[in-house]
Amino acid sequence: MSDSDHGLTTARRRASRARAAWLLAAPLIVLFALGCGYWLGRQQVPRAPALPLLGSAPAFTGFRNQLGQVVNSAQFAGQVQVVTFLDPYCTNDCPLVALHLVALENDLRLAQLQQHVRLVAFNVDPWHTGPAQTAAFMREYGWNPDDTRWQFLSAAPAATRHVVRQGYHVDYEQVSLAAEAAADARAKARGDYVPQPQVANALAAQARPDFDVVHNDMLVLVGPHGHVRWLSGDADSVGDVHLLNLIRGLLQPR
């Protein structure tokens, strides 16, 4: 098995079970959040344990959000950042993560924490997409792009690589569909093929890209002072209640 085949197979095997569960649950997420958000906002949540300092989040300048506005990391000072890494043309994890973020924002609003938290997504397809595509992606999955509590940030490939790969240590790679199909065929021949559930993405259906962007399914919490405090390698399967409790803990004075 080639290194590239092994990387694709390992990543797919890890994510397959979580994706399948999300495909069944995704239509209920927002409705569930609306139903229980009132309760969540008024319960006395146990004090979350202190999270470790895992290093400083990378500083950046010159990224553009979904409205084309220039965004710098200094603008998030004093707020908790929920950081993800998304591809606007993705038909696997990214739409599920987007639904997750919409539900989380509803919980934050009902818990009266929305002014202290920002959702930050970095665009891992800097070669083909920018603000127009990130805005369309957000709209597709239930977010008004004019609401900048979620910032979907794009930059040139070099700047993106510096922040995402070197700063957050999140790997991503553009792979042609032909190469991906060949890798799948070899995996089937070996008997270790992991089928990937597909999620509807109208933007991808319209653009019909001949490539995929393979990337880590990471979710990171950055504290109000700019330190990485918590991370998960399965962004599409982190429970909203657990995430809300972690955010509360980061906002509590110690």
TrEMBL record:
Keyword Isomerase: no
Residues the record lists as binding Cu cation: C90, C94
Keywords, ordered alphabetically: Copper, Disulfide bond, Membrane, Metal-binding, Transmembrane, Transmembrane helix
Transmembrane parts of this sequence: 21-41
Family matches, as InterPro entries: SCO1/SenC, Thioredoxin-like_sf, Thioredoxin_domain
GO MF entries: metal ion binding
Pfam families: SCO1-SenC (PF02630)
Limits of the Thioredoxin domain: 51-252
Cysteines engaged in disulfide bonds, as pairs: C90-C94
Protein family according to the UniProt entry: Belongs to the SCO1/2 family.
Name of the molecule in the record: Thioredoxin domain-containing protein
